[in-house]
Amino acid sequence: MGGIGGVNLRNELPNSEKMKFLFSEGIIRAKNAPFLYSTPEVTKNIDWDKIKGMLLGVAIGDSLGYPVEGIPPNYKLKRYGEITDYIPTKRSDWKPIGVPTDDTQLTFWTVEVLLENNGYLNVKELADRFVKERIFGIGSTIKGFIRNYKDERKPWYLSGVHSAGNGALMRISPVLIPHVKKPSNELWADTLLSTLLTHNDPLAISSSVAFVNILWKLLQMEDAPPPNWWIDEYVKVASQIEGGTRYKTRRKGLMYSGSGYEFINTYVRKAVENEVDILKFSNKIGSGAYLLETLPFVIYVLCNYSYDPEESIVKAVTYSKDSDTIGAIVGSAVGALHGAEEFPHRWVNNLTGRLSYRDDGRIFKLLDKIKSLFNF
């Protein structure tokens, strides 16, 4: 692995040391906050079913949202009503079964790298894995990363695109797995470097860390938290890491320029207080791949529906535009909170478990390997 500034970023170094060094070189576009060096708190033993749910939720939400991705919610409702089951597509041979896109692929390729390295997140190997085979529904930022890393042969830590897209947040959940029984600040380093790999942006980095903190706490909860908890927990962490970058909304009639966390703190909290209809909220704030749309929408769904994992995912994929990714993110959260057993059995039974074309059952085999390797 190459080095910069005369220092060698060796693969065997702890990721916290790599993170510290990359901050010192000014490479990471985020704030080097004390939170990143804290140890996450453990208050109770975490059940395997919740780990499984966190990962399975990504695949379920992705597969439910994929056939209607890009369709504005108003048109989606007129054509389909609420999305409650897998919609047949050409890739599913016109059967009502769940097939993956990039959300599921990148998530479970991260799982593969963790398994191959006994829980160590080897970011160089993760980069190699991401460019190895075809990605379904690939986004522009991941395309940019592949161009930087594979075509221009930049080192992994210089290949991330300055993008506030949601393509890192959607795949971040596996980084928790190795730390559940051995919590340390390496969790935050793994989260940050995994994000940096493709998205070197303050909002992308801060949202990944804040969301992993939320997932960590959900894994230890038995009941859905109150609505404002989601906002408070996100803002508490993201505000320390995001820094002073200003982001602008892209919606007509909604003028905002400022931090991502303050946008959430203001607009989502106000919408919760006023019990704004989810379609109205989606149309006003937006629900595309830009994190200033993805994050508020995801948090609003969780504020209102997290007590019911099925309803949460249905609302996430129906009332959003980037429906596969938003479904995947919401799916990971409610899966972590409720566990895999609480997902409708039809969703699990009709999920192909593919990561490629005809490798049915692959994600279920990876789940079994996680359970075995980490002794859940």
Can you describe what's shown?
A two-stranded antiparallel sheet has the order 1-2. Strands 3-4 form a two-stranded antiparallel ribbon. The chain has a single domain (49-367), classed as ADP-ribosylglycohydrolase fold (Orthogonal Bundle). The chain has 376 residues and is an all-alpha fold. A hairpin with an 8-residue loop joins strand 3 and strand 4. The two termini are 33 Å apart. It contains 16 helices and four strands.
Question: How would you concisely characterize the structure shown here?
Answer:
The protein is mainly alpha-helical and 376 residues long. 52% of the residues lie in helices and 2% in strands. A hairpin with an 8-residue loop joins strand 3 and strand 4.
By CATH, the topology is: ADP-ribosylglycohydrolase fold
Shape from CA axes?
Answer: globular
Q: What's the CATH superfamily, by name?
A: ADP-ribosylation/Crystallin J1
The topology string of helices and strands comes to EEHHHHHHHHHEEHHHHHHH
Number of strands: 4
How helix-rich are the residues, as a percent range?
A: 40-55%
Helices, by number, come to 16
Q: Give the strand line-up of the largest sheet.
A: 1-2
Mean pLDDT: 97
Kindly give the count of domains. 1
Q: Which CATH architecture would you pick?
A: Orthogonal Bundle
Largest sheet: 2 strands, antiparallel
In terms of DSSP E residues, the strand content is under 5%
Radius of gyration: 19 Å
- The residue ranges in which pLDDT falls below 50 over 5 or more consecutive positions are none
CATH first level:
Mainly Alpha
